[in-house]
């Protein structure tokens, strides 16, 4: 397989962190182990799962790096502001109970440090070095493809599309089509399969038209689906008034279920034994006008 395992991705991220972040900021080996564990959990998230700051801090708050102990209350910007102006509640509390305020200050700085580490280092490393996507038959699991590998896969898929049903437009043809209609194109992305790539079109999102003239700005046009709303409403009305006019056409999974349910009830009521059902699958990849 062309994708990297979660362990490989987490190890790569940790190697980048070790090469960028000064050792004093990473603490001792116990903090290293906790950080690597949390990074591995972050990398192993499935689609739609969340990862909050408390999960980033798992097993870390009890063992803070030594550099925090060198920070004094007087080094805090709030304290310096209070000394000059006299309106900092944080520093006022520190003047009364320096030990508790110092602990609160260290905890707050440590939480900010871990948040920065994940948001400004871990996430950018992933987005810059990996293309993150799902696969056709593993829609909840996340897969990490190194960007050079993904570019090669995408280029091969693009060549295949050109050999089949698609044609690449030049700038002049592209702009002439846009000028004649009020909606844009669908957004297309590739979804990896076992041995090839599947093309997936998103017709719901608005289309950004990039201006090739430097003096003009890019602009957005309506999505393909929005331009078909009136036609969709007409077809639904035809279907409601005359259900048999559109034959076996369906408008969603609910319609599919209703048709299968009625078919099953008719078969079940007419015969004592339900006969074998044969499902025919047709390839519609070349069904274009």
From TrEMBL:
It is an enzyme of class 2 (transferase). GO terms for biological process: telomere maintenance via telomerase. Belongs to the reverse transcriptase family. Telomerase subfamily. This is Telomerase reverse transcriptase. GO terms for cellular component: chromosome, telomeric region; telomerase catalytic core complex. It comes from Scilla peruviana. Residues 7-163 form the Telomerase ribonucleoprotein complex - RNA-binding domain. Keywords: Chromosome, Magnesium, Membrane, Metal-binding, Nucleotidyltransferase, Nucleus, RNA-directed DNA polymerase, Telomere, Transferase, Transmembrane, Transmembrane helix. It is found in: Nucleus; Chromosome, Telomere. GO terms for molecular function: metal ion binding; telomerase activity; telomerase RNA binding; telomeric DNA binding. The keyword Zinc-finger does not apply. Its EC number is 2.7.7.49. The chain crosses the membrane at residues 113-132.
């Amino acid at each position: 397989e062309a994708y990297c395992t979660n362990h490989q991705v987490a190890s790569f991220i940790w190697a980048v962190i070790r090469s960028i972040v000064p050792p004093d900021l990473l603490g001792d080996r116990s903090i290293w182990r906790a950080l690597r564990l949390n990074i591995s959990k972050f990398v192993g998230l499935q689609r739609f799962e969340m990862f909050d700051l408390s999960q980033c801090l798992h097993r870390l708050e009890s063992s803070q790096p030594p550099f925090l102990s060198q920070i004094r209350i007087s080094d805090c910007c709030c304290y310096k502001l209070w000394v000059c102006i006299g309106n900092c509640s944080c520093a006022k509390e520190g003047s009364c109970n320096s030990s508790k305020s110092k602990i609160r200050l260290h905890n707050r700085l440590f939480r900010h440090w871990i948040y920065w580490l994940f948001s400004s280092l871990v996430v950018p490393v992933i987005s810059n070095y990996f293309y993150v996507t799902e696969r056709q038959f593993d829609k909840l699991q996340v897969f990490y493809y190194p960007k050079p590998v993904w570019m090669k896969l995408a280029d091969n898929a693009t060549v295949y599309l050109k050999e089949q049903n698609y044609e690449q437009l030049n700038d002049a043809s592209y702009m002439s089509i846009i000028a004649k209609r009020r909606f844009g194109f669908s957004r297309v992305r590739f979804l990896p399969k076992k041995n090839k790539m599947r093309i997936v079109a998103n017709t719901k999102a608005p289309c950004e038209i990039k201006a090739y003239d430097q003096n003009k700005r890019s602009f957005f046009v309506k999505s393909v689906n929005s331009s078909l709303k009136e036609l969709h409403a007409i077809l639904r009305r035809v279907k409601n008034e005359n259900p048999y006019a559109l034959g076996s056409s369906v408008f969603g999974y609910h319609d599919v279920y209703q048709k299968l349910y009625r078919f099953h009830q008719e078969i079940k009521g007419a015969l004592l034994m339900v006969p074998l059902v044969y499902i025919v699958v047709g390839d519609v990849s070349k069904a274009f006008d």
